[in-house]
Design goal:
The complex is a heterodimer.
Chain A lengths: L2 H19 L9 E6 L14 H10 L4 E3 L5 E3 L2 E8 L2 E6 L13 H11 L15 E8 L2 E6 L6 H8 L5 H14 L7 E7 L3 E6 L12 E6 L3 H10 L4 E2 L4 H10 L2 E3 L4 E8 L9 H10 L2 H9 L4 E2 L22 H10 L6 E8 L5 H14 L2 E8 L1 H9 L5 E7 L4 H9 L11 H10 L5 H18 L2 E3 L1 E4 L3 E3 L2 E2 L14 E2 L2
Helix pairs in contact in A: 8-10, 13-14, 14-15
Chain B lengths: L1 H28 L3 H5 L6 H11 L5 H12 L14 H36 L4 H15 L2 H15 L11 H31 L2 H8 L4 H30 L2 H6 L5 H10 L3 H29 L10
Helix pairs in contact in B: 1-13, 5-6, 5-8, 5-10, 5-13, 6-8, 7-8, 8-10, 9-10, 10-13, 12-13
């Protein structure tokens, strides 16, 4: 036997052995495989604020309301509701709803869930968001009164996200720790098994009160490497994948095997330390807004798919002022403003950014290059997550890039980012504070929008940030599946269905 | 011999205490987990409350004392993120790590040792040149790249193997190959050079002079001696493989300890980092003890008996 013959026979044997191990990758039509960047850290919605964790939870747990993309709500466990006064809602709970173990979902369960959210030992990260609420009173088995301390316009919307209704008897029996691993909810899917590190298998809850989801089983897997997730989508191992960076999107589309949803987004922004020179001068801050060529960054880094933000409230969010136009790219004007502010030759500064944000290095470099053109020399400071946050809180950044999700409800983030009671690390404006406090108390939607328009305009003029853009993020979805992502980015799979 | 083992085990305690201190102080100096645990809009009061509850306001030495007294009772605390005992998370992941490490070692040994011997025996031949070039190639290929290339070839193009995750043998093939490749290359080069040295020794010449078959001279007399440095390196590498295969674990979504600990470090999940570092340190020490004991079998001249 010649050497080559030997070589090929060895290869043949190896191929034969490998073929024995080959698994059947064909996904059945009633099973949906979802791959995210990480597996959940637990399955109790009240114990984590991590996106990948909350995504799985929203398939298991239901809340009183279904939050909508225009910041309104639709019925879910709450069948109907009425405003009693500015501090009170009367909520009628749907009859015949059960938890996955058969326990009834009733007024007592809602009260229990509400009170549990504030339990110290639970360390609920969403506690702050619920802090506007005072109490839940049970009127009868299917009616409750929920009161707030002050009028709180986004109240129902917040309940729709952060108050999952949980089974009192089951939790009393197993305790909070066990509940985090083996939860019982009242959502469209129930937990079948969780093999930590490998997969979470959810099965359809056949007695679910709402529309029946199309898929019988949903399997969630955590696959940290993007290339591996994309490979899985292309081989048919995964039906839906999250975390697809801009540069990889063409590959998915070109494969002819999958498509992209275009729903959710994050809104990066460039903050400045307005307490210290040079950014304590509004002219400098405006100059920064004119100096950065966001149109070009959008074209070069995001294929033109990003939405430029005029002010702090995203153009897709309720309350943004539609008359505002994004700051144009105008380096000459920037230079003029810098001269007027006493920096005709520019200055040196630092720009901090968290390394884990996607495509952040490219953005930071582009921004620094633009600023250099008007004489502002920027030293880039990439920081790992914890260090970035620590320095942020210690007011050590001069300029910094952070982001917020492009949430439909302005109070969710404008309040958090600009109300000095929540954080005044880099900016404080008593006028804005007052309006933010007012905005959340106005129950009339139209009047409320006017307050946010004012806030948007005021911050646009005062420019505590360089207002950047909303980057649309996408999910990769197999051509065999019909699924449109949600704007909030949570992978709630109840609406997914096989394509005919 | 027994006393030697006991003494080595006693040394392990020093190592563990030292490592625990280093791990504890470094992770505590590197950032505060509380702010990472709460959402971005948490108020200062919420942050302070949680910090108090978790005991992070105590002086560092007090915190270490609390940790150490519980750790000696086997309680490493609860993971700040997963809300389950840290040790439970590690024991869940350890089998996956061991499985991958053993498979990679096996792949490496099975290919590298015969190749190394062949190269040494046929020094300067086409086989020698080819395999050493191959080894160089294997050593210089980054794990990450190789892993992705394997996925593209075997999963996307050929559709033979699943892209990621842990399951049957089919899931193990690519990560083991990707991880084993650089080891393979290292072992092949090492085997060759050690064999070359051994083949020039007097006892090999004597064995040949006695008229023994070349197969026996190489397989029995030479190889056994050549194995000593190989076992030493393999032992060190094995310890490293258990905790240090983060890249391969990430590419293949392999649920091993490496990724767990790196994630825990990013999250400042103190209890989990401390527990993992300790477990890995103990494993490392034990594997090396095992290697030392293997020497006795491989080379009777080495003895750990106490001199009297």
């Amino acid at each position: 036997m010649s050497h080559w013959k030997k070589f090929w026979s060895v290869i043949g044997i190896i191929a034969l052995i490998l073929s024995l191990f080959v698994g059947t990758a064909t996904a059945k039509k009633d099973v949906l495989v979802v791959m995210q960047e990480a597996e959940p850290v637990g399955l109790d919605l009240m114990r984590s604020s991590i996106q990948t964790t909350m995504s799985v939870c929203y398939n298991i747990h239901d809340t009183l309301f279904a939050p909508q993309e225009d910041a309104s709500v639709k019925p879910r466990i709450a069948e109907s509701w009425e405003k009693v006064d500015d501090l009170t809602w009367k909520i009628h709970i749907r009859h015949g709803v059960t938890f996955h173990n058969g326990e009834p979902v009733n007024a007592q369960a809602v009260k229990f869930s509400f009170e549990r959210a504030f339990k110290d030992s639970l360390k609920n990260p969403h506690k702050g968001k619920l802090s506007a609420f005072k109490e839940v009173k049970v009127l009868d088995d299917y009616t409750i009164l929920i009161t707030t301390k002050e009028p709180y316009a986004p109240g129902l919307y917040i309940l729709g996200y952060y108050l999952p209704i949980v089974p009192p008897k089951y939790i009393a029996k197993v305790g909070d720790e066990e509940y985090n691993i083996h939860p019982i909810g009242c959502g469209p899917y129930k937990l079948e098994k969780w093999v930590r590190g490998e997969e979470i298998v959810l099965t359809r809850y056949e007695k679910y009160y709402g529309p029946k989801p199309a898929f019988k089983k949903i399997i969630f897997k955590g696959v940290p490497e993007e290339a591996s997730r994309i490979a899985a989508l292309l081989t048919g191992e995964a039906d839906v994948i999250s975390g697809v960076s801009i540069h990889q999107r063409k590959k998915i589309l070109a494969s002819g095997k999958a498509y992209l949803t275009n729903q959710m987004g994050v809104m990066p922004y460039l903050g400045m330390n307005t307490y210290k020179p040079p950014f304590n001068n509004v002219k400098v801050r405006r100059a920064m807004n004119y100096a950065i060529n966001r149109q070009l960054i959008n074209k070069a880094l995001f294929n033109g798919k990003a939405i430029l933000c005029p002010g702090p409230i995203s153009p897709r969010t309720f309350g943004h002022d539609p008359t505002l136009k994004p700051y144009p790219y105008d380096p000459a004007r920037a230079k003029k403003l810098l001269s007027e502010a006493g920096y005709p030759n520019g200055f040196e500064t630092r720009l901090a950014y968290p390394t884990y944000m996607s495509q952040i290095q490219e953005q930071a470099e582009a921004i620094a290059a633009d600023l250099a053109k008007v004489g502002v020399k920027v030293k880039l400071e990439p920081y790992e997550r914890a260090v970035m946050w620590q320095r942020y809180k210690a007011r050590k950044h001069a300029m910094y890039i952070y982001w917020w999700d492009d949430a439909p409800e302005p109070d969710r983030y404008v309040y958090s980012l600009f109300n000095s009671k929540v954080r005044d690390y880099y900016y404080k404006n008593p006028e804005v504070d007052k309006l933010l406090d007012l905005g959340r108390t106005i129950m009339d939607r139209k009047k409320r929008a006017e307050v946010y328009h004012k806030i948007d305009r005021m911050l646009y003029n005062d420019a505590p940030w360089v207002f950047l853009y909303v980057i649309p993020e996408v999910f990769g979805v197999s051509n065999k599946v019909e699924y449109h992502g949600r704007r909030d980015g949570f992978l709630d799979m109840r609406t997914a269905k096989p394509k005919p | 011999m027994g006393r030697y083992i006991l003494r080595r085990l006693w040394h392990t305690i020093y190592v563990v205490v030292g490592i625990s201190m280093i791990a504890f102080f470094f992770i505590h100096l590197s950032g505060d987990p509380v702010m990472l645990m709460l959402p971005a809009d948490a108020s200062t009061q919420e942050i302070e409350e949680l910090r108090q509850k978790l005991g992070f306001n105590d002086p560092l030495y007090v915190q270490y004392w609390h940790f150490a007294t519980k750790a000696v009772q086997g309680d490493f605390g609860e993971s700040l993120y997963y809300h389950v005992p840290a040790m439970e998370l590690i024991t869940e992941r350890l089998p996956a790590s061991l499985e991958l490490a053993v498979a990679a070692m096996l792949v490496a040994f099975l290919v590298a040792v015969p190749l190394g011997i062949l190269s040494a025996v046929k020094r300067g031949s086409f086989i020698d040149l080819g395999s050493m070039l191959g080894a160089l190639f294997g050593l210089s290929m980054p794990h990450f790249w190789l892993g992705i290339m394997l996925i593209l070839l075997f999963s996307v193009k050929l559709g033979w193997l699943p892209t990621s995750g842990r399951g049957g043998l089919s899931h193990l093939v690519m990560p083991a190959l990707a991880l084993g490749m650089s080891l393979m290359a290292m072992f092949a080069r090492l085997t060759r050079s050690v064999m070359l040295e051994v083949l020039n020794q007097d006892y090999v010449r004597t064995a040949r002079a006695k008229g023994l078959k070349e197969r026996i001279v190489i397989g029995k007399h030479a190889l056994k001696n050549a194995l000593i440095p190989l076992v030493t390196v393999a032992g060190m590498q094995f310890g490293f493989l258990i905790g240090g295969t983060v890249i391969i674990e990430t590419v293949f979504a392999w649920p091993g300890v490496g990724r767990l600990v790196v994630q825990a470090i990013f999250n400042r999940d103190y209890p989990l980092v401390q527990a993992t570092v300790l477990v890995l340190a103990v494993l490392f020490v034990l594997v090396n003890l095992l290697v030392d004991l293997l020497y006795v079998y491989l080379d009777p001249q080495i003895s750990y008996l106490e001199e009297k």
